[in-house]
Amino acid sequence: xxxxxxxxxxxxxxxxxxxxxxxxxxxxxxxxxxxxxxxxxxxxxxxxxxxxxxxxxxxxxxxxxxxxxxxxxxxxxxxxxxxxxxxxxxxxxxxxxxxxxxxxxxxxxxxxxxxxxxxxxxxxxxxxxxxxxxxxxxxxxxxxxxxxxxxxxxxxxxxxxxxxxxxxxxxxxxxxxxxxxxxxxxxxxxxxxxxxxxxxxxxxxxxxxxxxxxxxxxxxxxxxxxxxxxxxxxxxxxxxxxxxxxxxxxxxxxxxxxxxxxxxxxxxxxxxxxxxxxxxxxxxxxxxxxxxxxxxxxxxxxxxxxxxxxxxxxxxxxxxxxxxxxxxxxxxxxxxxxxxxxxxxxxxxxxxxxxxxxxxxxxxxxxxxxxxxxxxxxxxxxxxxxxxxxxxxxxxxxxxxxxxxxxxxxxxxxxxxxxxxxxxxxxxxxxxxxxxxxxxxxxxxxxxxxxxxxxxxxxxxxxxxxxxxxxxxxxxxxxxxxxxxxxxxxxxxxxxxxxxxxxxxxxxxxxxxxxxxxxxxxxxxxxxxxxxxxxxxxxxxxxxxxxxxxxxxxx
Length: 555
Fold this sequence. Notes:
- Helix 3 (about 250-260) crosses helix 4, helix 4 (about 270-275) crosses helix 5 (about 295-305) and helix 9 (about 405-410) packs across helix 10 (about 415-430).
- A hairpin with a 2-residue loop joins strand 5 and strand 6 (about 530-535).
- About 35% of the residues lie in helices and about 5% in strands.
- It has 15 helices and 6 strands.
- The strands form 3 sheets. It has a two-stranded antiparallel ribbon with strand order 1-2. The chain has a two-stranded antiparallel ribbon with strand order 3-4.
- By secondary structure, the chain is mainly alpha-helical.
- Its EC number is 4.2.2.29.
- Pfam families: YceG.
């Protein structure tokens, strides 16, 4: 603080001051309070103003004792309040670029403020520099409605990737005062560097964006093609030869997967579509097939439905076990009787169900358990393995039809008897439309109150099984009644000891759920027609029809 502080008048503070007494107020020579170690005026923190006594026709002077008005255009007048953020007064003598845009600033209200405004507009001195009005702060002040501009904000930090790491001499190239010192040239160089740097950044961003778009496009195309596009498939009939084993109970999709693993088709989906479209999915059966590699799915389906391509072993419904053994020997190029011997010696280890424990006492222990189907039999397969596969298939079907539970419902002694009824139905009925009524004839003849046959089945099929033959001429009634064999149903009442063949699923269903009726007799007059009768007289009439049909067939 200087020794010239501002008081209530324009006089210096001390009489010894050289200026003491030279200047006076236009309103008198009123002495100012002396300095006694403390400032006795109202503005102790303000510096002396040698121009404080100047006023304009009725304007403020020190003798009026009021607070001097603030004039933003008077560099020597009262300074604006300190900045609330930095605590310092704004510097209006800084570089020209530091001034904010100039705009009007309202003067203090009241008569003195209006007069000051008018005098300022009339007597504005040109030698004073034009100072812009401080920037208003929207914050709330303690009694003031404006605040000084805190100054330019600090620039936000620039990302290191885009920062200029070139040489910098510390001079501001945008300052007009630097024009003569190469500022313009340096700005041109910097602009070129920034342009090159921006170009590289844009190139990197473009490459990254292109890579991302390409990746998304590739995986998107792959997703669409895998979910909505056609299934991959080969073309043509294929080449070479390969054997494919289709496991039992395989679905069409599982068949396709097995063919794909063997290199036959390109995809399981293509095979499934070809089999479904051709409506041959129900014809395809498990087994061993001789196919070619790289076949189209349609060609593979066509070849698999052709019996010549099936490298498996097919067992038809009603076939006796003895005939099955012969087929296995032929398939595996074994000596005749090899498989039959294995069946007798290894029957207990082939997986028969617990309710078939007495099967070893029968004429053939595996009769009824070599389920009709097509089985995969390779050239190096063993007879025991083939028989075990057939028994396992039979167990699966019999469990599905609950032979144990249904045998109890039908008042049979065991599931073995239910299986025997199914084998009789298969042997006597021949066709599905006759199975339900043939099964009913069997159950009617087994009734204790049967007065038509008195508990005898009288089936030629059982006699043929006992004699290991298949003929319609089994002999006279007297000859049949003299044939002493437990499978001779003309002599022994009730069911035979066991099945007489390997029934299929339709015959099993008919044995479980037979038709309702009082039939005791039936006769097949031709392969397409079977006549049923409730009495013996009606049955004899049907027999005469049968004999006429036989005579026509011989002509």
